[in-house]
Amino acid sequence: MISTTVLDDGVHEVVVSEPPVNALTVAGWFGLAEQVRAAGAAPSARAVVLRAEGRGFNAGVDIKEIQRSGPDALIGANRGCFEAFAAVYECPVPVIVAAHGYCLGGGVGLAGNADLVVAAAGTAFGLPEVDRGALGAATHLSRMVPQHKARAMMLLAETATAEELLGFGSVYAVVPAEELVATARDVAARIAAKHPRVVRAAKESLNGIDLWDVRRSYRYEQGFTFELNLAGVADEVRAGFGSGS
């Protein structure tokens, strides 16, 4: 389930709850994109908080759905992720991601495209794609860690902690898990208290001076996922994979 609540002062909160690990189906990714876009489009919106319930923030795509449904699910997952990541990046008001537990695969795509990230202590960020027979979201990981760190994390499928990312400046704050929601809401409220037209202009201008086109860059990455699937390599790797990630 993905739901949106309007908090005080124009803060819209989008919450993902898809047990057991918040690995989203094709419909889930498109649904998330729709709700983030709707939140940002609301005339009253001044900031958006994106968070999740359960064991972790996001475990990426539902691999089991792809195993069951084949190419159509793969195409849908790629397009759904593309839309959800773009919805966060293109949201006309700032998006604050509140991550806890783990932020993997598509979770990195969401966090990497957000304006600010707050995280619970010990949250693990990573791209397990190489171990899943796929690629993608290196575009977004590269916005969160230095280049050689990103390469090591991707090639070795290793994770980095919220504390490490705090040192890189890509995580704004690391707090105890029980304080995460309140912290994210407080950050959003502080933004919402500023002049809305100025904040919207700041968001648009920051996107306008970005060093690379995140949409085009991510779409380029997705082409290699299709290539691996057409070659049969992805099926070979996924055959030994037992849970959604």
Automatic annotation (TrEMBL):
<dbReference type="Pfam" id="PF00378">
    <property type="entry name" value="ECH_1"/>
</dbReference>
<dbReference type="InterPro" id="IPR001753">
    <property type="entry name" value="Enoyl-CoA_hydra/iso"/>
</dbReference>
<dbReference type="InterPro" id="IPR029045">
    <property type="entry name" value="ClpP/crotonase-like_dom_sf"/>
</dbReference>
<protein>
    <submittedName>
        <fullName>Enoyl-CoA hydratase family protein</fullName>
    </submittedName>
</protein>
